Structures are given as C-alpha cells and as structure tokens.
Amino acid sequence: MTDTPGSMTQGNADASGPSDRVRAALGLRPRKPNYLFYRHTIAVRALHWLNAIIMLVMLMSGLQIFNAHPALYWGNGADFDHPFISLTAVGTQDNFHGVTEIGSWTFNTDGVLGASTSDGVKSVRGFPDWVTLPAASPNLALGRLWHFAFAWLLVANGMAYVAYAFASGHFRKELLPTSKDFAELPHEIANHARLRFARGEAAKHYNGIQRMTYFVVIFVLGPLIVLTGLTMSPTMDSAFPFLPWIFGGRQSARTIHFICAFSFVAFFLVHIIMVILSGTWNNVRSMITGRYAIETENRNG
Amino acid sequence: MADATTSRRRFLARTAALASTLGLWGCSDPSQTPWVLNILGEVENLTRRAQRLFAGGHALAPEYSKADIAAKFRANGTLNPNTNDYTAHLANGFKDWTIAVGGLVDKPLKLSMAELRAMPSRTQITRHDCVEGWSCIGEWTGTPLQVVLAMAGPKDSARYAVFYCADPMGEATMDANGNIIQPPYYYESLDLLEATHPQTILAYKLNGQNLPVEHGAPVRLRAERQLGYKMPKYVQRIELTDTFARIGGGKGGYWEDQGYQWYGGI
Predict the structure, then answer these.
(1) Which of residues 190-219 of B touch A (CB under 8 A)?
(2) What pTM does this model have?
(3) Of A96, A116, A131, which one is at a domain's C-terminal end?
C-alpha cells in the first residue's frame, strides 16, 4: 500500500480507540463498519502542528507586547482620549478594578482584563499573566524578542504550506471554493447548525464551509496579519511607504493586526468545537497518522 | 496491612513529588532559559540584517501634512531632568547649553544653541512611533546631523554616533557599604548610515515653538525611521566611535542595556 492521499486500508480496520468490549462496558455504541482512509499527507500534518506551536507563541508574545499600551486607535496617530478599545483600571491606587472600555461602554473585567493577579500581587495590566509570554508583565523587550523570532517561522511555515498546496494539487482539489460550494452554502450552513456532519464517502473531502474558511484564513488573514505587523515598523514604512497608506495609518494597521489575531483565536475555537463534534479521536488521529475512519454505507448500528 | 498502607503512602508521596516536578517544568518560563535566549538573540541578528537589506539606503520616512499634526503631542520617558545643572540652564534660557562633538573626528567642536540655529535647517512633519505601540504626528525643525558631523570631519574608523543626555534615569541609591551610586544618564547610538540620513536632525522646535521641556529642551534627536527610544532628548554631547562595547552597559543605549533591540526591531 502506498502512502498517497485517498488510499485505504481494507476491512473493519479501525483498530484504534477502545475495543468493542470496552465500548460496551462504557455504555458506548459499538463501532460501525469502517475502513481507514489516508486523508492528510505527512507535509500537511507536520506543517499543521508546527503552525499550532508557532501561532501559540505569536499570540502569547503579541499579548505581552499589547500590554505595553493596551488600547487601540484608528488612523495614523493615537487619539489618547478616544481609543475605541482599551483595557484599563479604575479606582484608587489601593483599591482598583480592571475594566474593558469599548467606545463609551465600560465593562467590569476585573481579574482578567485591565487588572489581574500575578504571584499573589494584583496589578494593572491589559491581559493576565497566564496568556502572555513571558508571563511576567511588563516585559515588552522579551515579548518583542519572541514575537519577531517566531514571525520568521510563521512566514516560513505558511509559505511552505502554500508552496506545497499549489505543487501537490491540494490547493485546487481541497482549498479553492467551487461554484457548487457557493450554491450549496445555505444547505451546508443548515446542516452545520443541526450538527449533521458528512459521513461515509462525503467525509473524504472538505465541505464548502471548510474550503471557504480555510481559504480566507490562509489567503486573507495570514497575509494581512504579516503585512499589518510590518506596517508598525517605522523602518519598514520607509522602505515600503505604501504599507501605512493601504491600511489607513500605523494605528489602523495595529488595530487590524489585533482583529486578525482574534479572528485566528475565533477560528481556533470553532475548529476545536468542530473537531470534537465530528469525532474527536478520528480527527486527531487523522492529523497524527494521516488515517481517518470512513464509515461504510452498510450500517448495522 | 501496615506494610500496604506504608507503601501506598510512599506511592502517593512519590506521585505528588513527580506531579509537582512536572508542574514546575510545565510552568517554567522558557524566557529564563539561557540557550533559548541565545537562539532568540541570533534570530534578532538575522532580522536586523534583513531589515538593513530592505531599508539600507536613505529611503525617507513618510511625511505628513499640517492637517495631520496631533492636537497634543504625547511626552514619554523623562519629562524633566530636574538636576541642578539642568534647572540652571532652563532658568537661563539655555544660553550656555552646548553640544560637544568629539571622539573619532578630525576637528572636535562645541556648538551653542545660537550657532546650531544659525546652521541650515530642515522642517519635517513626521510620525513618532513609540515602542509601546502608540504614534503621534508632529512638525520638527532642526539642523541635519550630517551637517554637524561634516563640520567635525569623521575619521574613517568612525562607525557609530553616541548621544549623551542630561537626564538621569532614576534616583541615586546607596549600596550595602553606604556608597552613593549615581543613576545612569540616558544615552543612545546610531550607526553612521542612520546618523547621516537626511531626516536625522538635531531638533530644537516642535510645531513651530521652541522645544518644550518634556520633549527634550533645548535639543533632541529625531531619527524618523526609528522608534522613539532611539531619539534621545536633552542632548549635550555626541561622540563618534568604532564600538560602544565600553559605554554604559555595552549595548549601545539605555534601553538596549535593558534588553531592547539596538536596531529598533522590525
């Protein structure tokens, strides 16, 4: 058997996970007849897990950098009196609580955003120490060191993936949304809302929503977060003056950078929920060994 | 029975010890691991070289229009040096303030503020970018540093311009033996490519007015392709050198000595 996507292992081959006897003891349904389908190539799997680690470091070091001035603005300069989002604290030096201000609204986010406790000491800080790298705030210098080093890895990993996707046909076959995907979008959304996921042969390929989501994340969010990151550097702006121009200013670029980062977080949360709802073990295994169990049409469950 | 209890207790104790070790390992900050920091430092060198590749010439920082000038220009870092010396200069209208240029130059010189103002000037409306993330647009007027350096005649061996400032960073402290330790004074450095960039000026005006104290009166550096901490205020002395290894903490600037990038970061 060759390791090419689409090859299969014959028979009721889902040898992983609890055996039927254990499943019965745990009150789980017996496995349905299935065969293992080679779904993810080694390149996709390796780049996926590398990306997961890189994105985690980028997010956590990015939040450490953000803590140096936890407020967002639009335009070129910062209108300090009117940020549209800021994480800050209100009260006195001895008695304060953290708040999140969005426009003219103020939300009490004490303990998490605006003010939180680190090593038993409560202090004013944007994001709490358990989501920043390094943990201790403020440490802008080290946060930048991590962020800029891993930015290279992020770009290298992303470019390797895109190069692979184009060279292997992965882009054309699995990522590029088709006109059929758009036509079937309402139907697909309804199925997702009812938590009805593709089974059998249909589970061999990304569905329309997956294709559109991956396409936007890889070809829109990815480049956008890198370019807005570069725009924040005055030296890069002198080399590429169109950068601050296309994003409407350095502060706009910083805000877009932040929105992109949290779009990645939102993508990650939905991704994890979908992995769990559509079969945790089968999905995780397919991203480790490449093999995904496809239920055969003949169900006896 | 007793044996079983003892061994179970021992097992539990060992499990707890193992769990706490794993916990510590899981929580230990990789930023405190020397080899991790060494690798990150090496990658910094790569980033610095890559940036020099793209912005190696004298490409100009974007300039803006009068309409873009911020209503209030944020002041950061030292807002007033508050030393006896500085307070006397301030009271005197900086008539006796001088900027000395020395080190690896053919003709060391000393300029008064009046002499500096009489030299050719450049006015530029530029965006000030702080390492913290905020920006402010203002109009700066000053003498191009390349004009001042040309007067002094840098020697071929000169590689960096080091700027010494009048603001002490913090209070004097006392060590265990009762010796008073003076705080370091702010200092910064640029390489000669950045020092001779057309937008690198010794600025004495902000938005058409004499430089306010919180912005570095009577003179500060503007290096428009750099972050704010690379533009020292209250400049008193410029030294051309081939190394800054023996100056301050050896990293080329006050904030660099605290771990910030000398080249300003990407």
Answers:
(1) none
(2) 0.87
(3) A131
